[in-house]
Amino acid sequence: MEISNVQFTKEMRKTHTILAPSMAPIQFSLLVQVLAQEGYRVKLLTNEGPQVVQKGLKYVHNDTCYPALLVIGQMIDALDSGMYDNSKVALAITQTGGGCRASNYIHLLKKALIRAGYENIPVLSLNFKGLNKNSGFSITYPMLKKGLAALLYGDTLMLLKNQSKVYEVTPSSSDDLVDSWVRKLNEQFSANKGSSFREIRKNTRQIVKDFAAIEKDRSRPVVKVGIVGEIYMKYAALGNNHLEDFLFSQSCEVMIPGILGFMLYAIQNQIEDVRLYGGSLLRKAVMKALLRYLSRLEKMIIEEIGNNSDFTPPRFFHESVSTAKEAVSISCKMGEGWLLTGEMRDLYALGYTNIICVQPFGCLPNHIVGKGMIKKLKELDESINIVPIDYDPGATKVNQENRIKLMLAVANERRLEEKQ
Amino acid sequence: MTIGLDIGSTTIKCVVVDEYNQIVFSHYERHYSQIAKIGTKLLTHIYKNVIKTKKAKMMISGSAGMGIADRCNIPFVQEVYATRVATKKIVPDCDVVIELGGEDAKILFFNQGMEVRMNGSCAGGTGAFIDQMASLLDIPLDQFDSYASKGEKTYTIASRCGVFAKSDIQPLLNQGAKKTDLATSIFQAVVNQTIAGLAQGRPIKGTVVYLGGPLTFMENLRTHFDNTLKTKGICPQNSLLFVALGAAYCATGEIDLEKTISQFSKQEHSENIVFLPPLFADEKEYQQFSERHNKESIVQTSYDKDHPRSYIGIDAGSTTIKVVALNEKKELFYSYYRSNSGSPVDSVKNILTEIYEKFPNIEIKGSAVTGYGEHLIENAFGVDTGIVETVAHLKAAQFVCPDVEFVIDIGGQDIKCFKIHNKTVDSIYLNEACSSGCGSFLQTFAQSLGYDIKDFSRKGLFAPRPVDLGSRCTVFMNSSVKQAQKEGVSVEDISAGLSISVVKNALYKVIRVSSSDQLGAHVVAQGGTFHNDAVLRSFEQELGREVIRPSISGLMGAFGAALHSMTLPVEKSTIISKEGLKRFTHTVKNVNCKLCTNHCQLTINTFFPQGKYISGNRCERPLAKGASHDEINIYQWKIDRLNQLDIFDHDRIDENTIGIPLGLNMYELIYFWQPFFSSLGKKVVLSPPSTRQLYIKGQATITSDTLCFPAKLMHGHIQTLLDYGVKKIFYPVMTYNLEENRGDNRFNCPVVAYYPEVLQSSIDQLQTIDFIHFPLDLERVKQYPKKLHRQLKQYFPELTVSMVRHAVDSGFEGYRAYKKELQEEGMRIVSLARKQKKNIIVLAGRPYHGDPEVHHGIDKLLTSLDCAVVSEDSLILDEKKYPANVLNQWTYHARLYQVAHYVTHEDDMNLVQLVSFGCGVDAITTDEVREILESEGKMYTQIKIDEITNLGAVKIRLRSLLSTVNSNQKRMR
Fold this sequence. Notes:
The structure holds two protein chains of two kinds. By secondary structure, chain A is α/β, with parallel strands linked by helices.
């Protein structure tokens, strides 16, 4: 099989629609707008259903990680649907570029496209490592700046929505507030506003106030549950069978660590690499500066949440690093690496003692930093209540929910014990 | 009064307790997926005869109860939690509960932070597994326990999942192992599975309570647990009802029983089941389909006394025996197709007797046997020759369709497919052990639902809405069926859905087609499973084209063997005579081979009047057929070379000794670390190459059951070193491998890179010694020796930077010397093989596939088939970087691509890739290696390995490969 490299050219910006998988819905819907203002027409895929998995199984090696199978199945399903003019469509996929298999998603996608007869569709790789460059797509400074702001807003909106929803007196008031903020932020972005430090602070403060103003019934018996795991599975409802919704239906308050943490983690790893093994000191210095810059933003957001509401703000990244170190070496940097272990400890420290670790079938890093660390985490924090849940094309929702219910039963018992 | 209702995967259990928590009523019944009907009846009985009022407290539990509870508005309690509530009340001093259910295995720890472990979605069933094994062995379930109590010998049966275990048992059966021994081995496998899969490093001690059906009914199973855990567990009264009792104890709110019963009886399908279009629109469509397929493609006739010259073909399959007899015109006058009832020798004896009785003057001119039991039957009855299954099937398929381009054969427990190019087998696809649920899967499923397989599959033909059950391994399918059942899907729709799943499994998991054009225009579908019209129909539907199913589709292997026997240059067949058959006896003896360290368990079959067959051997030595082939086997050389290191001596362990586990990347890097540490004045002791015992030693601390086997073995290696009394164990975390300039990066796979972290976290004893596992990049150590020095200093304060620098030099010297030696040896084998005109097989994998417990002696199997064996790292390859269609970023995997390119230029070389089950990276490499080879017209052969020790399927694959290679070579000459 010869894989040709169909380029996404400058001209295609005007003519082509870029189809991209949706991962974290709030963050990604904001990002799409940022790209739109730079002249790209991006559409997030939301098609679901059994045919998505079927197509994944048909065109991707069945032992491949489940997220790849889903994302590629979803793209081919979209191309098959007839909803798009396939001669004017490009696909976009993220590429992490580490020792994990996920770096190979783009190649799996290209192979699958050939098998499905779509070899002429250009594929864009979204990465920061200069892999698989395309002439028609380049990351510009305004894009980066707005994109970063979009992610930060998205993280905050997700966090506050998850802390409000289960208590809301008027159904869907939290979701409506998220929608209205997404609209508001999009308007700001198109007026080239909303991405400076000052503006982010101003907006965040208002977001916090708005969520605090939602009428809530705090007397409800609620279990606090954290979700960690492989990044796609953690956020994407297509991957985790609408886990957030299921947890809301079981009266849970949910906490999912944000995307900012993953970015900080990727930067931290570069610093750590040089520290451990040697290498370019310049690179280390640049990364340190970047880490400092992002940490400043992180601090501002945490303070805005903490100072203006009762909501639980996320933990500081530097705290994650030091608590993670107690369980696992932070040289484990493939996939979600040590961050996954660290997030479990963070959640515990923040009061989310019940944790679901979503494991996609065939995810190698998760064997190490997910399942492999559970025993250790229990030794460190005896009352941590973790359940690893496996996701794959054959696993049934009923089985997954049954396991989660067991975890919740234990959680409820503890909650009652604590009350007494 | 309070009702506790436990709806499990196979049974329904119910208790009614009074206000003093005394049981006033209890019931236990298999529900055969008719939950609504049986539940309604049960509740009505309770209402009318037990409680007699409308108001009662009630709680539902059980894996199949969740949906029903939701829809009937009855509170639900998770079943494990219910168990715990009941246990706390009934056995208050309980420390650990082990509960085996229909398809679940659970361990509950009560102390130090209550903890519950349930089997993962990949670990297979336990109760259902024993059911399945009992029907496989043809033992009534109620006698299984007494069979097991008479067992004397325990065979190694893979415990990772039910399907694996099954593929271990089937060949043992075919080799004549005793049923009593197998029954006891199955119990032991269940015990190992439960402990390895669930304990995950947590010791099981204190008061152990056994619950659930299998442990209640099977005393001997409890004994196996007792012996393994070195304890005496309790199986309390009402042990079957604990979940129901727990549910009753948890119940709070009152319900209206009358209303509940009416809601219960109205159970309908819920939304989350996916249905597929029916197989046939109407009766007429089915008739057209039947007519098309019933066309005689092979002439069946009756025996003609005046033409007694005949040819016999035998196909001794995994679960069935198929025999045909042909006359000289290739017409079939006798056929037999039946289950082998676990004893192929007896079956064949009866068949041959029948043939001699039915056709007294028969003159057998030739005979051939194929299938799993090929060698056993060949030796038992003096059959003229054996023939590889794939070749037999090809011959038969070409008889019915000379232009055949693709043959798919779905048999009892295997799927064999091959593409035909230029009249020879081009590529072969066999199902790996993990997806072997084929015909026998349908059969056991039919039985578990209480149907005969024929009736069961016929039911599916006109199912209005076949249920979509997915296309993965059968264990997953089991839970999909479970879900469908609990949603009240009809047996018809389940039957059709299962047939469709079998087809999808074959197409997308085994063959991996993406379009039907890949199979070609002429497809022959055969094997017993295609007798099943539902399977055949869904195959045509899925492919979108018509295929040929021969009228004797289940007999094609035997037919091909008979055709083959016609071409033999013999005058009269050597097959056992009528008289010989009367005196025929068969005895089986088990011994341990002592000829090498493998200590294979041999099964010796002795036949009277003549014949002897030994099985279970991994090499030719116990058969004394010629000398060993070690001189043309690089894998043997690698082990010998390790032994020369002289670091296995663990008699004198002191403070100065450093233990190193022999596994994963250490198979290669030990040649660095040994000289490195000796240069620092330290003594290295290495754990020995893996054995089964070593694996068992570490299995209790394995944290993830879907992990690759080589990584799981590390637990045993660490445990061995700890048992030696070593005070320091060295095993660094290595994100990066060494630079070999073949790929775009030099990563290790995540498991190789970070496994020390898992060991550190899961093995408690490691906290008591120095487990040295700092992060290290060996490539950059040359440039930054201070960094290594800083790490080492924590453990060895006396070291200086210059000592470390010097040691690094010695390490690299040793490593390079080894690599050079390895390649010289590889090239020596290649040139020797060329002199002897042998086929050369590149058995390609990773360095740690050199572990005999990992490769299971596949190297010796190859040499016994007259091949020379080299490995991916033992050939001198060019330094060229080939463009790859994937991100080529792992050092070990880059070698695979490189060697694949190399093999395409060498006529007498073929590549066989070893792939560990659960190896995620190989999902990428296998496709890429296949594409490299096939783009240059080479065959690609992949062998998946796991705990599994049986080499039957591997042998078929390798023999087919060689038979194709040889016939290609002949044609080229």
